[in-house]
Amino acid sequence: MNNRYVYGVVEGDPIEFETDAVGGASVVYTISHRRLGAVVSDIDTTDPEETDEDATRHDEVLRRIMNDGDGRAVVPMQFGMAFESDRALKNVLRGALPAFRRALNDVEGRVELGVKIVRAEDADVDADAVTERIADELEPIAAQSVGNDLFSDRLVLNRSYLVDREDREAFDEAIARLEEDEDDLVVRYTGPFAPYSFVDVTIGAQR
């Protein structure tokens, strides 16, 4: 397996650990350029199929990195980034060095949390009032937030929040208040995730 599958990009000390990785690999490690490191594992293709199992392995590798020590910043890559050589990968790191450093600075010490507010079946709710209430509770705590698709007619709000790790408890408490107060709504609270919604650095796989 001579190709390199990329999970994300970190800065600082190199990473190496054993785990069930994408494509049957068992070791995750970094390929470095200056202070940046692409977190990779070996893979036998540059076009991996996104199975449920490998998508889960991709996310679990990122979560393990995020939980390293007191928490480590990582710029996550979407599933499927694979390179045919270390040289090709280092060329990408070199070209995107300023963008990666900005992104790492933006997410340092922070995690992504997801909040969905679902209207109970047959309930009549004021969506604007609910959205305003959620914003009053959560926006002052979050560093950033971004809206996601309302893919169901019962979905009142679908939003991702970038939250400082030190503010996580306050955010949890705000969610608990919402769960207690909104009788006709279901609060679906997920995370922490790697901050996919708050980085805009993309790299193209090279074959």
UniProtKB/TrEMBL annotation:
<dbReference type="Pfam" id="PF06386">
    <property type="entry name" value="GvpL_GvpF"/>
</dbReference>
<comment type="similarity">
    <text>Belongs to the gas vesicle GvpF/GvpL family.</text>
</comment>
<keyword id="KW-0304">Gas vesicle</keyword>
<dbReference type="GO" id="GO:0031411">
    <property type="term" value="C:gas vesicle"/>
</dbReference>
<protein>
    <submittedName>
        <fullName>GvpL/GvpF family gas vesicle protein</fullName>
    </submittedName>
</protein>
<dbReference type="InterPro" id="IPR009430">
    <property type="entry name" value="GvpL/GvpF"/>
</dbReference>
<dbReference type="GO" id="GO:0031412">
    <property type="term" value="P:gas vesicle organization"/>
</dbReference>
